[in-house]
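fyi for ur records
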Amino acid sequence: MEGKAMRVHLLLAIVVGVFMVCAAGTLCWPGGTMMHYVAPNGSDANDGSAGRPFATIQKAADAAKPGDTVIVRDGVYTAANSEGCAVVVECSGTAEQPITFRAEHKWRAVMDGRDDTAKYGWVLEQDARYVIIEGFEMKEFASHGITSNSGAQHITVRGCHIHHIGNVETTTHYGLDGIFDNSDTTYHTYDGNVFHDIGRTGPPEVLFNLDHGIYTCGKHNIITNNIFYNMNAGWGVQIAGYHTVDDLLVSNNVFAYGNKRGQIVLWQPCHNILIQNNIFYKPAVENAINFFEADLQNVIIRNNLVFGGGLKDNDDDGVCQLSDNIAGKDPLFANGARFDFHLKPGSPAIDAGIADRAPSTDTDGRKRPHGRGCDIGAYEF
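which gave:
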């Protein structure tokens, strides 16, 4: 019995060791997954452990394996490579073990493009799979906050603050976007992010429709619980079917102010598009949803609320299916002038949404529905 007890204690010690320590003090979980740390006062010569963090997110990205989590501590990160990219992600997770990049505290890990000196915040290369980017602030990059190149799959961007991207005077015909996903990308989810003040600032005005919060070209993508405001050089979301956008959900977002021509635009082949439970607030002088040279199939627009403009223009050739939309009623934001888009009591958006395919939580993480029905917009009352 004494020998058996010793063997049991030895086995427990081995198990505890596997859970607690892996390679120079870095926390390690079963299956070999690790926690890597990044801090402004770190060094890329360190091992990335909690006590010896890396200095750059790029170093952690190069070290990441399936199931790993990169914790980025509070501070400002300005490093970029010779091509102006802050982080290039070429690693791949799996469905069971994604690779997660997470700000330790929401919006307090700041990726700064140094007044448009750097071009890109994140570049997700074609081999990037099952990657989560969560809780960062990204600002002042010249081109994109996040770019997904063709082939990237199963990418999630959650809870980020993406603003003042592409605030430059330029005559380039390329879009300057908060997030851009290229043709032949698939299964991207953008949830609970805030986008504002994105796009060029100088002449010529003819190019003032090219820059967007999200420019999506892929298939099987989801855009939920986001806030878009002050998109003065383009739309909150452009749906661009270079190789056909197929199976896109745009649900429970808030679009406010911005481009005089609207807040969502569909261009080229766009098939199986569901736009529901969104608030379109003061889309200036025209309509919230626009169609430009669009080839549409199975586009459903339902249970949205629009105030201060029309819901859509008339260039859809009667293809769109509209139902239960609310026009001309003030959504009664807590303080729209200060960009607080929570709902006040009595809002016509309360309980007016549709639960089918709505996200299960709101931007604050509150369970949806909360009350008799699903609310329209990013927040449950």
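Residues 36-343 form a domain with the Pectate Lyase C-like fold (CATH 2.160.20). thats all i got for now
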